Amino acid sequence: MTPEAGPPADVAIIGGGPGGSTAASLLAAAGRRVVLFEKSRFPRFHIGESLLPFNMDLFRRLGVVHRLEAAFVEKWGAWLCSSDGSVTRYVRFEEGAVPGYPMAYQVLRSRFDEMLLRRSEELGAEVHQGATVVDASFSAREGCELTVADDHGDRLRRRARFLIDASGRDAFVASRRRLRRMTPHLRKAAVFAHFRGVPRAEGKRGGDIVLIVLKDGWFWMIPLPDGVTSVGLVTEGAIVKQEGRDPVALLEESLRRCPAARERMAGASRISQVWSASDYSYGCREISGDGYLLVGDAAAFIDPVFSSGVLLAMTSGEMAADGLHAAMGSDPWRADLSPRVFRDYERRVRRHVAAYMRIVSSFYRPRFMDIFLSPGGRFGMRQAVVSLLAGQTEPSALIRFRLALFYSLLRLQRLVGFAPTVPLLATMEEEKACRPPAA
Fold it and tell me: Contact at 8 Å (CB) between 394 and 344?
């Protein structure tokens, strides 16, 4: 029989990434007994290095802003560039409709994730690394029981009143209960690596992300500490399979064929392996269920073009922790923790995900860049879009109206093409195919 490893906890958390560690920190700080199981041992590699300004409020609440300042690169905006380099636009976060959110950070995720997980330990959470949850039973009435295997294969049991699944794209609960629903039009693939020698702007703009837009995807270039730059390509998953290239060849060839990327990468050298990821976007039929809440990527994953991943993970972890702490009251084992209690949590998470899903879906539709890269900013649309891209997931009615105008303008551009067309190359298209014919 598998031995029990400790006394029952109030909350068990699967996963120690940003969502899980945020929930653990806030629940432990509130006096709850929290046990967290993370299958990896930190530091460990993870993609998704670019943060958003609206996340800063939560970093202040967690008490880690000074650590971010000491370790990472400031991010004040983003450069967007057409694939031939002829059209560029700079997005300054300080131009958003809501003042007070001018900057965030570019982070090395191995250090960043470890920092957040260590913070949860400092606040009183019981953290187990190298601990893989292999089985679990859970209900709102009886609580949950987890079976956990350590690095040596030894197993233990642990009980808790409630379960938070923050297991990322492993999606522990969703994969076992078949809750995941892939988003067919966002089946993308990515290849990425770390480089040295990628040029940066001078001064505080040196930390700004660069996005080079293609007809069927985009490149990211994210400045990291110590002169390292994360460089990646996101494109159609079918293209990767059809080309039949390994990740190294695909990344190198796509960078060579894109004029704007080739120019920036001329003096760069790769210092890491090339990683890959596929089948990007999905959601879940349930986010709150019988004895559990899903947090972060365990609930939904969206293509990372607008860097929403860490923000959505951490804000869902915050909402889960606050809602669960309030519902547990003074006696967690007598509290009503049925799914109906967490309907507001599910509604808010879905609303946040939907806001980014809409603009990401629009990004991949034809003619998006014609409007997005245009210099006009009537009716406050630009400020509203910048606020969304900065991470404002609970916009006012006025900002929602301005965003609706922006999406209406996109539809109009697709129908009648009133704005000039931005020339874009496809992922493996030669440069000459993008140029207009000579007069």
Answer: no
- Structure pTM? 0.94
Give strand pairing partners of 342. none
Q: If you average pLDDT over residues 414-420, what whole number do you get?
A: 90
More confidently predicted of 128 and 187 = 128
- Dihedral, 194, 198, 201, 202 alpha carbons, nearest 10: 100
438: confidence class by pLDDT, cuts 50, 70, 90: very low
pLDDT of amino acid 215: 92
**41 Cβ contact list (under 8 Å, min separation 6):** 129, 130, 151
Contact 88, 212 (CB under 8 A): no
Tokens 């067309």 sit on residue: 421
CA–CA gap between residue 3 and residue 5 (Å, rounded): 6
The span from the CA of 21 to the CA of 109, in Å, is 13
With left for phi above 0 and alpha for psi between -120 and 50, is residue 97 left, alpha or beta? Answer: alpha
Per residue in 115-167, pLDDT tens?
Answer: 999 999 999 999 999 999 999 999 999 999 999 999 888 999 999 999 999 99
Q: How many whole angstroms separate alpha carbon 248 and alpha carbon 239?
A: 15
**Distance separating alpha carbons of residues 24 and 409, to the nearest angstrom:** 43
Instruction: For 241, list phi and psi in degrees, rounded to 5.
Output: -70, -40
Q: Do 362 and 407 form a contact (C-beta atoms < 8 A)?
A: yes
